[in-house]
Design goal:
This protein is α/β, with parallel strands linked by helices. It has two domains: 2-151, Orthogonal Bundle (Globin-like); 166-327, Alpha-Beta Plaits. It has helices spanning 2-11, 13-26, 37-57, 61-77, 81-102, 106-158, 168-185, 199-206, 208-224, 249-264, 296-312; strands spanning 166-167, 189-196, 231-234, 239-245, 282-289, 317-320, 326-327. It has a seven-stranded mixed sheet with strand order 1-3-4-2-5-6-7, with helices on both faces. The relative contact order is 0.08.
């Protein structure tokens, strides 16, 4: 019986393809509507050829390939599965009408229609399954791509991968905004810049993992000793910067001194207890707007100059911008 139906569909393929193309072109909305009528006829012939092979041999390979191609094409065009399913159901109705016309025996007509319905149902189920699979793959790929892009943007321009603090690029932009806000509204603003003293020698002595761990621990102390509104960044290899809105120079100096003291009390490596205390020290520069710079660039330069003077003095010290006031290091 399947051979009889296959022969029928094969013999009448032009008629069925033309009728199906006409029906599809009138569907609103339809995943087929944007295709020219002749292309719709070719689509009908392709589907009929795959369907005939399936009915003749019970081998779904060719029909499944056709379905997978259609699913990928419809997905790429941005259409939903329901619209395409409507098209296949329209095909089944047209072919069923043809079966009625060409099969005079009622039993044969019922058998033909049953086989046709089963073949069409296979098409619909296989199409929806493949369409959903492709949709999930695309969604997963897009989500992965978006996540990768977000991480790349964060890593490149916003967040330092070692300390999870902001990067220098972000900090420079933020400092410019904060300085303009302070100037416009007459607000207080302080800036700290500090280097880890002799960091290259520390890295050479203890190794890269210990050096990165030291940076992370210093970043942790920086978070613990400052407010959420204070923007913290790793602005160079061993340089950190901190902008403190609504903060005068004196309290900023206190924060800087406490940070210097607590870093000096850290062990060289987290896993060795008290061993190596004093291996990690800071050279810190502190300044305030507008006393030490009316623009972000000038303020940063003044505070970095103070930090450099601290390094010349041997480190483990806090220096105020311009004035060169030294806060003596504990025990030193």
């Amino acid at each position: 019986m399947t051979s009889r139906l296959a022969s029928l569909l094969d013999r009448e393929q032009d008629r069925i393809a033309t009728s199906w193309a006409t029906a599809l072109s009138r569907m609103r909305p339809s995943a087929f509507v944007y295709r020219p009528l002749e292309e719709l006829r070719r689509l009908g012939r392709s589907y009929l050829a795959a369907l005939v092979a399936y009915l003749d041999t019970d081998d779904p390979t060719r029909l499944r390939e056709f379905i997978h191609q259609e699913a990928a094409l419809r997905l790429s065009m941005g259409f939903g599965a329901a619209e395409v399913v409507q098209g296949f159901l329209a095909f089944r109705d047209l072919a069923a009408t043809l079966c009625e016309q060409l099969a005079s025996d009622p039993d044969e007509r019922v058998a033909l229609y049953r086989n046709l319905a089963q073949a069409t149902d296979f098409t619909v189920v296989a199409f929806v399954t493949q369409f959903q699979h492709l949709s999930e793959e695309r969604a997963a790929a897009q989500a992965h791509e978006l996540e990768h892009l977000q991480h790349a943007l964060v890593d490149q321009s916003v967040q330092d991968p070692v300390t999870d603090l902001f990067t220098g690029r972000f900090f420079d932009e933020h400092l410019a905004v904060e300085v303009k806000r302070a100037a416009r509204y007459g607000r207080q603003l302080s800036l700290l810049v500090f280097d880890v003293d002799h960091f290259e020698a520390f890295r050479g002595r203890f190794g890269e993992p210990a050096a990165e761990d030291a940076l992370r621990r210093i970043a942790g102390l920086l978070r613990d000793l400052t407010r959420d509104v204070d923007v913290k960044a790793r602005t160079d290899e061993a340089e950190f910067s901190l902008v403190m809105p609504e903060t005068a120079l004196e309290p900023a100096f206190v924060v800087a001194e406490r940070l210097r003291s607590e870093v000096a009390d850290l062990p060289a490596r987290e896993s060795v207890g008290d061993e190596g205390r004093g291996e990690l020290t800071l050279s810190v520069g502190v300044g305030a707007h507008p006393a030490h710079g009316r623009t972000a660039r000038d303020l940063m330069q003044a505070v970095r100059d103070a930090r450099d003077r601290a390094r010349v003095l041997g480190g483990n010290v806090v220096i105020q911008a311009d004035e060169g006031a030294v806060a003596p290091a504990a025990g030193g």
